[in-house]
Automatic annotation (TrEMBL):
Source species, domain of life: Bacteria
GO cellular component, one term: membrane
Taxon lineage: Bacteria, Pseudomonadati, Aquificota, Aquificia, Aquificales
Subunit structure, as described in the record: Homotrimer.
Pathway it works in: Glycolipid biosynthesis; lipid IV(A) biosynthesis; lipid IV(A) from (3R)-3-hydroxytetradecanoyl-[acyl-carrier-protein] and UDP-N-acetyl-alpha-D-glucosamine: step 1/6
Subcellular location: Cytoplasm
Family label: Belongs to the transferase hexapeptide repeat family. LpxA subfamily.
EC assignment: 2.3.1.129
Organism: Hydrogenobacter thermophilus (strain DSM 6534 / IAM 12695 / TK-6)
Role according to the record: Involved in the biosynthesis of lipid A, a phosphorylated glycolipid that anchors the lipopolysaccharide to the outer membrane of the cell.
Name this polypeptide is given: Acyl-[acyl-carrier-protein]--UDP-N-acetylglucosamine O-acyltransferase
Catalytic activity entry: a (3R)-hydroxyacyl-[ACP] + UDP-N-acetyl-alpha-D-glucosamine = a UDP-3-O-[(3R)-3-hydroxyacyl]-N-acetyl-alpha-D-glucosamine + holo-[ACP]
Amino acid sequence: MIKVHPTAIISGNVNLEEDVEIGPYSVIEGSITIGRGTKIGARVSIKGKVSIGEDCKIYDGAVIGEEPQHLKYAGEESEVVIKNRVIVREYVTIHRGTAIGTMKTIIEDDVMLMAYSHVAHDCIVRRGVIMANCATLGGHVEVGEYAFIGGLSAVHQWARVGSYSMVGGLSGVSLDIPPYTRASGQHALLYGINTVGLQRRGFDREVINILKKAYRVLFRSGMLKREATELLMREFGSYQEIRHLVEFINTSKRGVARDAGGKV
C-alpha cells in the first residue's frame, strides 16, 4: 500500500512502487522511480531524473537530484541513482551528474549519509560507505566500499578514497587515500593500516599483517613507487588485497597521500 501525505506534491513521470511512503510537504517532481518499501520523510525535495531503490530511508529536509553546482552545467538530462537500503539523514544534498563526468551520481547499496553531508555531481559512493555529519564530496569523487569519512571532512574534486579506509573528522583530502589505510589532518596524511576497521569487517589476521608489511614497503622503505609495487606483487601478489592496493596506487591521477610517520 502506497501512503502519500495530502500536503505532498507529486508531478511528472513518477513511479512509486509498493509500500512507499511520502511525508508531509515533500515535493517529488520529474522522472522519478522510488522502489518498494522506501520511506520519504517530511519536506524532502526529489527532482529531475532520480532512481531510488528498495527499503531506503530518506529523512526530513533532504534534497536529492538538484542541479549540480558546476558553472559548465548546461541543463543536460543527467541523473542520480540510489540503490537499495540506503539511509539519507536530515538535510543531506545529492546532486545530479554532468556531461563533463559520467552524467550520473551513484550511491550503492547499504550506504549511510549522516545529517548535512553532501555528495556532489558525478560522484560514486560504493557499497557500505558511511559519511558522518557534514562530510562533503567534491565533484567526480569515488569512495570505495565500506570506507568511512569522518564528520566535517571534505574530499577534493576527482580524488579517491579507497575501500575499507578511514578518514578522520575535520580532514581535508586532496590526494588519493589508499584502500585499507587511515588518514586524517587538514591536508590528510596516512597513519598506517585501518586495523580496527578491517577486524570489524572480518579480515583475517594474516591478511592484516600482510597489509601492514605492504604499507611499510610503500610508504616507509624509501623505495620508488615502481620498485615498491613490483616487490609487493612478487612477494604477496597471491593476495587479492595486495593486488587491489597496488592497482589503486598505479592508477592514481591526483597522487597518493603521504605517510605521517610513526608506527603502523
